[in-house]
Amino acid sequence: MNIMALDPGRDKCGLAVLNDQGEILWRQVIETKALEEFAIARAREHDPVCLIMGNGTTSKEAEGRLKKVLPGMTLKVVDEYRTTEEAKKLYWQVNPPKGWRRFLPVTMQVPPEPVDDLVAVILARREIDKGPV
């Protein structure tokens, strides 16, 4: 049973697909204007049972757009509280600092790329941790 998750944003979105164990099957930061295209492609490829979406920036607009292109999919809007901070920590777990940067605490470092896709991962994992989605 797979789950798609979205961190909606004005210019870019984080989109991820996880299995029901919380393992990442696919994740990417995408342009918001390409949201429908990527959501449809991931739905066809991974057949998710639902879409978990953060309640932040432009969530109402994204929800409307996705309901049009994925009419049969259950869509659940969830709280995004502190997900960006969690995503930054997760980024450094996935991409440990190298060279002299490994001596600096990761809390003092800024990831060199957007972490919106990892925010989507965190949103999905939060729902998985609550029990059956």
Give structural notes.
The structure is a single chain. By secondary structure, this protein is of the alpha/beta class. It has one domain (2-85, 115-130): 2-Layer Sandwich (Nucleotidyltransferase, domain 5), CATH 3.30.420. Helices cover 38% and strands 26% of the residues. It has helices at residues 35-46, 59-69, 83-94, 116-130; strands at 2-7, 12-19, 24-31, 48-54, 74-78. A hairpin with a 4-residue loop joins strand 2 and strand 3. The radius of gyration is 15 Å and the shape is globular. The mean pLDDT is 96.
> Per CATH, what is the topology?
Nucleotidyltransferase, domain 5
**Sheet of most strands:** 5 strands, mixed
Give the CATH superfamily. YqgF/RNase H-like domain
Arrangement of strands in the largest sheet:
3-2-1-4-5
- Identify the overall geometry: globular
Mean pLDDT equals 96
Q: Given this structure, which CATH class is correct?
A: Alpha Beta
Proportion of strand residues: 25-35%
Structural class: alpha/beta
First-to-last CA distance:
9 Å
What kind of assembly state do the chains in view correspond to?
single chain
Helix content: 25-40%
Cα Rg: 15 Å
Number of spatially distinct domains: 1
Number of extended strands: 5
Q: Compute the number of helices.
A: 4
Low-confidence stretches: none
CATH architecture: 2-Layer Sandwich
